[in-house]
Amino acid sequence: NAGVTQTPKFRILKIGQSMTLQCAQDMNHNYMYWYRQDPGMGLKLIYYSVGAGITDKGEVPNGYNVSRSTTEDFPLRLELAAPSQTSVYFCASRPGGSETQYFGPGTRLLVL
Amino acid sequence: GEDVEQSLFLSVREGDSSVINCTYTDSSSTYLYWYKQEPGAGLQLLTYIFSNMDMKQDQRLTVLLNKKDKHLSLRIADTQTGDSAIYFCAEIGDSNYQLIWGAGTKLIIKP
Fold this sequence. Notes:
The complex is a heterodimer. Chain A is mostly beta strands. Helices cover 0% and strands 50% of the residues of chain A. Chain A contains no helices and eleven strands. Classes of the chains: A mainly beta, B mainly beta.
């Protein structure tokens, strides 16, 4: 199993540009999550999904959108990038019946 | 809302024990976690404890939970240079979907 994979590893965006951060897991986990990690801060939940076709907002959803058309994939969309979205983004997944989340390696995003 | 607090830094000498502390406010907390993040890497689950336990030991790691004081600690025995990382405390409560994270404690190892 590859576990949780994220692409790209690093990206620089100009203000106002759009991009999609990809996340995939091959463990057949129902639950998937997107977090952002800012320096000196804990992780903040952006969006989460409890299964294909079902998504919901977390603590900091503004400026982002998600979709979950398959169990494996959970892309995060930034429509109009802003400097405040400069952060490290982590995707995670967990199986139903377990509270343990498995994390991807992260995507570093710089918005200039 | 619920909150998890940690000190931002801890400095210890190689070979000593490290004790990283965490306090939380959620009285309905069910699971509490310690994650490790090495520089430039993702988060790795170190260990977790159920809220009905007060201690869990796993090789060099000992987790202590004081539910009355809402205090969690992670003790690393015989700290090595490879233990240098940021350690995150997190908890999950009755909501069952959202982990609440501390800001992380950076463990610095002195030779």
